[in-house]
Design goal:
Helix 3 packs parallel to helix 4, helix 4 packs parallel to helix 5 and helix 6 packs across helix 7. 47% of the residues lie in helices and 14% in strands. A seven-stranded parallel β-sheet has the order 3-2-1-4-5-6-7, with helices on both faces. The chain has two domains: 209 residues, 3-Layer(aba) Sandwich (Rossmann fold); 44 residues, no CATH class. With 271 residues, it is α/β, with parallel strands linked by helices.
Amino acid sequence: MDLRLKGRKALVTGSSKGIGEAIARRLAREGVIVIVHGRDRLLAAKVVDEVVGGGGRAHAVVGDLTRDEDVQRLVDDAEQFAGAMDIVINNAGGSGGSNESWEQSRPESWMAAYDRNVLSAVRVTKRLLPGMREARWGRVINLSSLAATMSPAARADYSASKAAINALTASMAKAVAGDGVTVNAVSPGTIHSAALDTAFRQAAAERGLAEPEAPWPDVERVALPIFAQVPVGRVGRLEEIADTIAFLASPLAGYITGINLRVDGGMSPSL
């Protein structure tokens, strides 16, 4: 299916690895000029080189999205290379490695999580949204999480920040709905990343369920129930998140705005 994205320009934050990298590669295959962002210049440049080697167009920008001056600089760099952005994918963020319980919870952890997951998206989008509104066409897609609506006992700071992303999405969608700009959130479930692969293999080995170097399907089968109850019986693939976002970024999804689309294999018990 032709998503009619050829020639569009997209900034994908946090796209030097993981989900963001898969999104950048998928959009490039649709003919999108992709701005690859990361904090490690070598990793971002590697993704760009591979996209360009495959016939796509891409450019790397580097910066800390918790710093206003970095955001302004990388946006200027992106626009100097490609012109005004049509699409922004706010993927950068994460838990920061924190797994604090409520007893351990520190105010600074909450502030850092909010800055990393919410204000980073605000900083980037505020700088790109005026151009989209002027052009009467744009796509803003925010990466949320099932933790926003199915919060675990720990990492409450991360869950709360992702809930804020959902609220941000709904508010912005209403604000720009008449300007040809759609704003949506995507909440991935349990996705096969490098970190997940390591965690599954370690858990399976510790319990004597599978050898660390066993084929992935064998590890997945025995380890998945330890981590999550997924009705479809497997973890998601990076490509499935990227495909979803490519569709939402396309003209085909022009009447979809203000949603939180869960790509979770049926984990969430509600509609």
